[in-house]
Structure formats: structure tokens, C-alpha cells
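In response to a reviewer's request, we include the raw inputs and outputs for one of the modeled complexes. The two entities were modeled together in a single run.
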Amino acid sequence: LAKTTQPISMDSYEGQEVNITCSHNNIATNDYITWYQQFPSQGPRFIIQGYKTKVTNEVASLFIPADRKSSTLSLPRVSLSDTAVYYCLVGEAGGYNKLIFGAGTRLAVHP
Amino acid sequence: NAGVTQTPKFQVLKTGQSMTLQCAQDMNHNSMYWYRQDPGMGLRLIYYSASEGTTDKGEVPNGYNVSRLNKREFSLRLESAAPSQTSVYFCATGAETQYFGPGTRLLVL
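The model returned the following C-alpha cells for the whole complex.
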């Protein structure tokens, strides 16, 4: 499984766009990229997943360049409730997945 | 549709005691997982079950055993609890996307 590297922490203010970049230099051809969000005292929650190019859903966008060695999670117009830890993971398509969680990125949104 | 449920929510054990953490899912997934999360760290995989009837070790299996009772249920057992097993335990289910339970907070004194 490809190892990921992401910033330890980030700070932002309400209403700003936040971009969190994750590096996964050893990503394999069949691997996809998934981002999870975790609030204190809760389990991680799926945010978005992609294989290449750009994916958008109601809460975030995921940008993946052609070489797929990195990806960027974009959170538009963050609010205080977006304060959480964000994990970038790389997993193989199909079947079960032994995910490797890093320490994640602690995002603090300030008023 | 409860998704993934875990019991108990919180447990205090003395060193050497045993206990079983229960996990159940109603999402009809084949794969289930047990993770532990220590303060300030990411999750680490303890054991997983790719399908009913199969289990395999993850990154940190020592001190734990698991049972995949049926497609819905996957339990984690601590035979002789140690203070180093104080942690939050999460059960998850799914394949490309994993869905996590609310966690069990375990304190071993």
C-alpha cells in the first residue's frame, strides 16, 4: 500500500476555501484515493474518493493530477463545524482493504 | 438502518481481565475490520475479515483475537488486558469505502 504524507495541521477562517494536499509518490495503477474526516470522539467519516482528474460532491472536491502522485482535498467556504482531522488514504480497488492511516491533518477553523 | 454498531461504548478493565468488543453491521458488506486509535494518532489495523469465515492479522494483532460470527458480526477479544491496550477501538465495514462505528473507549488500569 502506498504511504501518504500530508501536513500535520492547518488553520483557516470561516468562509475561506481550504486546500489540503496529500503526497502519495508510490501509488499503484489500481489504487484509488479516499479522504476521511474525523471529529473528536467519533469514527472517521467518508468524504470523497477518486481515481484521477477531478471529483466533486456536495461537501468537497478532490483534484488529482495526471501523474497521481498527489491529490488535493478542497473544502469550499469552511465553517466552524469543519474543524476536524482529515485523513488521506490510498487503497486498492476491489475487495477488502487494509488501509494505512497516517496522523492526518488537523484543520482548525476560526471565527 | 443503523450502519455499524459497537458495544460497549466505554469499558474499564483491570490488568489481566478479559473482555469481548462486539461489532455488527447491517450494510451487507463482506469485509469487516478492527482498528485501534491512540491519542493524537491515526488508526491502526488490528485484524480484518475479508469475508465470512475468514480472518487475518493487521498491523498490530498481538494481544487480540477475533471471531467472524456471521456476515453481520465481528468480535474482538482481549484475553488478558494490559495497560498498553488502553485505546479507542473502531470497527469498520466495506471495501473501497469503509464505514466506521462510533467506537469503544477502553481503559485498562
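As requested, we also summarize the result in words. The mean pLDDT of chain B is 94. Chain B touches chain A through 28 residues (CB under 8 Å).
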